[in-house]
Design goal:
Layout: E1 2-5, H1 20-28, E2 32-36, H2 47-52, E3 56-58, H3 61-66, E4 70-72, E5 79-80, E6 85-86, H4 87-90, E7 96-99, H5 107-115, E8 119-122, H6 137-156, E9 164-166, E10 169-171, E11 175-179, H7 183-194, E12 198-202, H8 209-214, E13 218-220, H9 240-255, E14 259-262, H10 277-281, E15 288-291, E16 308-311, E17 314-317, H11 327-345, E18 346-347, E19 350-351, H12 358-363, E20 364-367, E21 370-371, H13 374-380
Parallel strand pairs: 1-2, 1-4, 2-3, 4-7, 7-8, 11-12, 11-14, 12-13, 14-15, 15-17
Antiparallel strand pairs: 5-6, 8-20, 9-10, 16-17, 18-19, 20-21
The structure holds nicotinamide-adenine-dinucleotide.
Amino acid sequence: MIISIPKEIMEGENRVAVVPDTVSKLIKKGFEIQIEKDAGLKAGFTNSEYEENGAKIVEDVNLLYSTADIVLKVQRPLERKETGKHECDLLKEGSLLITFMYSLHYPEISKKCAEKKINVISMDAIPRTTLAQKMDALSSQANLAGYKSVIITANTLRKIFPLMMTAAGTIQPAKVVIMGAGVAGLQALGTAKRLGAIVEVSDIRPQVKEEVQSLGGRFIEVETDESMQDESGYAKEASEEFLQKQKELIFKHITQADIVITTALVPGKKAPVLVTEEMVKNMRPGSVVLDMAVEFGGNCEISEKGKTVQKYGVTIIGEPNIPSLVATNASEVYGKNLMALLEHISKDGKVELDLEDEIVKGALICYNGEVVHERTKSLLS
Ligand code: NAD
């Protein structure tokens, strides 16, 4: 089967689906690889590196798509500005697209793919099971984003992180508050601790308390009788009453923080508002808020997607795609996730989808001209 890797066209996207090292591994598995010219440049990989690893460089985008049995991408299909053609219209009928579709947020694109009879596996829908761990691209990207979020905010803050005792006096450590202790939040916690900050973390899932404490964080716990975690380990959408209680509890912590990093997401839903305008107003001038949930509605009431703004003396960063800022590593690990998935669903360079397989069942969005992913289907009906 021929695998094509197009250049990502979403603004600000520096990642590429497959890096040269993964190309040679895929070829060993029996696939033929073709990649769009310059697709890897923004992630730090040259055309000649891809060629040396056995990929064919293709300049003609129509040819790249029309000859592909499988297309590997990072972002959902979009319109290609230079040709005015939507990527869905370039893909061949019956081909398989593997990418981050976020179909619960953008169900219409899945519908378009189904109408075009393109089969789609979405990397954000891979079940978070032990068997699928190697394919868990949400985790591989969130982990890097968590690290980078601390570096960005540390660089913006006009203070240092660690306690320093000097002849000129003692410098107090910076205070970091992290909202959401998922993969990104826990990596942010570890990174901020290594830099010497005092870190407080809040999550609605009390199950994460021990993890937070073992990484040296203080856990801000909202007492509740509600069960906040679903059977797959994800957060449930919290009630208004819970969110109100949470806001009252975290007010003091947020307003005393130098840095607030918010990572709170509920799959398929708008992100909960945790940092209100009132809280920002009461933060110290010079403090920094980074809203990692800005792509899905934002955890901070006054963050702006794609912008860094100053409000009430506070810098609010609304960077929607932090993994793209560490595109080299993000592409390396994403490519490995794709490779693991392809190994799981193929034999001798040929993909055969077993619709009863748990991983395929969870992540298959479109198949044979239909949207088959139940939650996406219900959003479309
Ligand atoms: P996520 O990105 O969906 O959400 C980030 C965090 O925000 C979560 O911890 C969530 O509980 C929290 N959150 C939601 N609403 C909140 C609120 N109102 N206030 C504070 N926090 C709030 O999470 P994720 O990083 O994708 O992880 C989701 C789950 O998947 C976790 O249980 C994680 O341990 C699990 N997981 C399992 C595996 C595996 O077994 N292979 C791998 C990775 C993650």
